Amino acid sequence: MDLRYEHTEKKLVDACLELSEKRPLRSLGVKEVAEKAQINRITFYSHYSNMDELADHIEDLARRTIRGEFGNGQTRKNRLGGLYNEVQNTFWISVTTR
């Protein structure tokens, strides 16, 4: 994968995680996450079709973190692990209300 692409994805995930420390993940919007990540919305949409897709990606990272399959970075691991239940609940609510 292109290093620039990976860097942008990391910025998006980190921005989402940081914002979710202050507000529930399900209340975050694309514009807010993109601004926090210091990218434009077009770039966001080149990585994810919507916030649900970004939440799914974070949920996958959280699962891998919990299983010990994710790389290094203790702070990021702690933040992802703590976010796992909220992402799972948001995903479940999203699926059941469609």
Distinctive features:
98 residues; globular; disordered C terminus
How do the strands and helices of this protein lay out in sequence?
Blueprint (H helix, E strand, L loop, with lengths): L2 H18 L9 H8 L3 H7 L3 H16 L7 H23 L2
Helix pairs in contact: 1-2, 4-5
Describe the structure.
The protein has 98 residues and is an all-alpha fold. It contains 5 helices and no strands. α1 crosses α2 (30-37) and α4 (51-66) packs across α5. The longest helix is centred in the last third of the chain and has 23 residues, at 74-96. The termini are far apart.
Would you summarize the structure shown here?
With 98 residues, the chain is mainly alpha-helical.
Question: Helix content range of the residues, please?
Answer: over 70%
> pLDDT average, as an integer?
79
Output the helix-strand order. Answer: HHHHH
Shape descriptor reads: globular
Stretches where pLDDT is under 50 for at least 5 consecutive residues are: 94-98
Q: List the total number of helices.
A: 5
The N- to C-terminal Cα distance equals 33 Å
Number of strands: 0
Q: What structural class should be given to the helix and strand makeup?
A: mainly alpha
Strand content bin:
under 5%
Q: Compute the gyration radius: what is it?
A: 13 Å
Largest sheet: none
